[in-house]
Amino acid sequence: MEDELIEAFHDVDEDGSGRVTRSQLQVLIEKLGIEGSDHDRLFAALDRNGTGFVTLDSLLDAFLNFSSKGDEDEEVSDE
Fold first, then answer.
1. CB half-sphere exposure, 73, CA atoms < 13 A
2. Nearest Cα to Cα of residue 27 among 17, 18, 14
3. DSSP letters of the chain?
4. d(CA 7, CA 74)
5. Start-to-end C-alpha separation, the chain
6. Each residue of 11-43: pLDDT tens digit?
7. Calpha distance 38→46 (Å, rounded)
8. How many Å apart are CA 12 and CA 42, to the nearest integer?
9. What backbone phi and psi angles, to 5 degrees, belong to 34?
């Protein structure tokens, strides 16, 4: 999934700047098939310094943190 995220990011990062706008993030989320996402809240959480852009690094960090949390939840429910 990480590779898909990186590929989708580069697809929507039309100018190759390494950052995407709110509308580009929405397209990226749709490309990944993520449904039910509140795009505005997600963008606000990812735009950590308020620049109006989300970088690939911040997106990957959030994805990896979310994935790790999901793994921890599964371990707890297995016990």
1. 6
2. 14
3. -HHHHHHHHHHH-TT-SSEE-HHHHHHHHHHTT--S--HHHHHHHH-TTSSS-EEHHHHHHHHHHHHHHHHHHHHHHH-
4. 27
5. 26
6. 999 999 999 999 999 999 888 887 777 888 889
7. 12
8. 17
9. -85, 120
Strands 54-55 and 19-20: antiparallel
pTM, to two decimals? 0.76
- Tokens representing 2 are 């990480």
Q: Which amino acid is at 57?
A: D
* Whole-number pLDDT of residue 70: 57
